[in-house]
Amino acid sequence: MRKGVIRPGHIQLRVMDMEEALKHYRDLIGLIEVNRDDKGRVYLKGWTEVDKYSLVLVESDTPGLDFIGFKVLNDDVLNGLKNDLIEYGCEVSEFPAGELDSCGRRVSFVAPSGHTFELFADKEQTGKWGLADINPDPWPLNLTGMKAERFDHCLLMGPNVPATQALFEQVLGFGLSEQVVAPDNTVVAAFMSCSLKAHDIAFVDCPDPGKLHHVSFLLETWQDLLKAADLLTMTETTKDVGPTRHGLTSGQTIYFFDPSGNRNEVFCGGDYYYPDHPPVTWKAEDLGKAIFYHELYIHPTYLEVLT
Q1: Catalytic site residues?
Q2: Which member of 220, 242, 289, 293 lies 3.0 to 4.6 Å from 254 by CB, making a disulfide possible if both were Cys?
Q3: pLDDT in tens, 17-57
Q4: Residues 183-195 pLDDT 10s
Q5: Quick one: average pLDDT of 170-181?
Q6: For domain 150-304, which CATH number applies: 3.10.180.10, 1.10.3210.10, 3.40.50.300, 3.50.50.60?
Q7: Alpha-carbon span 151 to 162, nearest angstrom
Q8: Integer Cα distance of 95 and 67 in angstroms
């Protein structure tokens, strides 16, 4: 197992109307638009993020997820992980530097869950938005909407959760922070971390491969989350669940939908993870408490609406 995956780096989402999507991600969630390229892709970032962008939007006839990129420590790690993925049996492809704006070469592979991932070592760093490099203020003026701080994590749904978990543990060096187990002890949900966060990626069992459940953006406090809920009502944005608390990860949450139907989350708080921590285990028969700790049941839309 090779260490060196640092953090979630970017996600590319398909949206059906770019200008409506920008009203949502830029004006409502509060991400900062940093560029548009000649392929029609729009790049955005959270204000605390040092890299140039973390969200890429591309217009399409259908919503959903194209890929998620993880940043690795350096080019040597990238080369090593590429070889490790090939030896593990993954089909690997590569994109040259510059195919995504200001990003170095990317190594791409498909997990057993059917989702496409990529690894990269280099991306232009533009610093925290609106803050000086020396003697910075704690936050910038002129933030909008929910004032999202960063792209935090994704929850993905597809088949072969144990095999996907094994790939992320054995090749990419992720740890299992929390899990949901069926009565026969099969893992049906794996929450995984490459950092100190409660999770950087999560996989939940589903017969259909490659599905996006949600993409999550970090807010600072519970009070920020309540203001985000106000903004959802003020803008008549379709809400799914919340504000409430998870049992899994102990984080506070609101789920809602972008104009194309992709589910978003804004998230704050939550547990932390170190590699020596044993995974927290939840029973599948108690999934209501695990997902929505206050309500103790799963809202019907939560596991049914996927893109």
Answers
A1: 153, 199, 214, 246, 255, 265
A2: 242
A3: 999 999 999 999 999 999 999 999 999 999 999 999 999 99
A4: 999 999 999 999 9
A5: 96
A6: 3.10.180.10
A7: 25
A8: 13
